[in-house]
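Issue 218. Parser rejects a valid record. Input:
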Amino acid sequence: MSAENSQQTSLKQKAVHEAKEITYVFLYLAAFFCALATYSMLLLEKFEISYFTYGAALLNALIITKIILIGEAVHFGKKHEAKPLFYSCAYKAFVYGVLVFAFHIVEEVIKRLIHGKAIVGAFREVRIDDLLARSVIIFLTFIPFFAFRELERVMGPDKLRDMFFRTGAPSKSE
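Output the parser choked on:
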């Protein structure tokens, strides 16, 4: 019985840890994608609230969150982890930035298909220059994101978060 209880406790702790990871990554990406959606709407002078735009931003955040966490679970980019952290961060930011670019293309095509365009016309109307500009911004945003993830990996689980969010965090490494 004792081994069974410890196994259940271990599974419960793992589930709680995974739920926290999903929440942290999702909140970061959701805030960023919603801010980017707002910026795009303001730039295009679309002052009405577009729930579809924000819904798509949240869906993108959820999809990219899952991709990032699955990528980390299968040790995506592990070959760069022995190099200085900058290389690992830049590599992961670039690769995940390319994935976000691909998802934005799919999103734009789906939006146009919903509005009654044919598939060929939907692809033709996608503004690649706009998507590339957004991808550069996303890439630059992913660099600090992956820097924090890599620092946490090197320092140990939760130590970096403790240093940022807990009162009385140690000022020197122990």
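Fixed in the parser; the record now loads. The chain has a mean pLDDT of 80.
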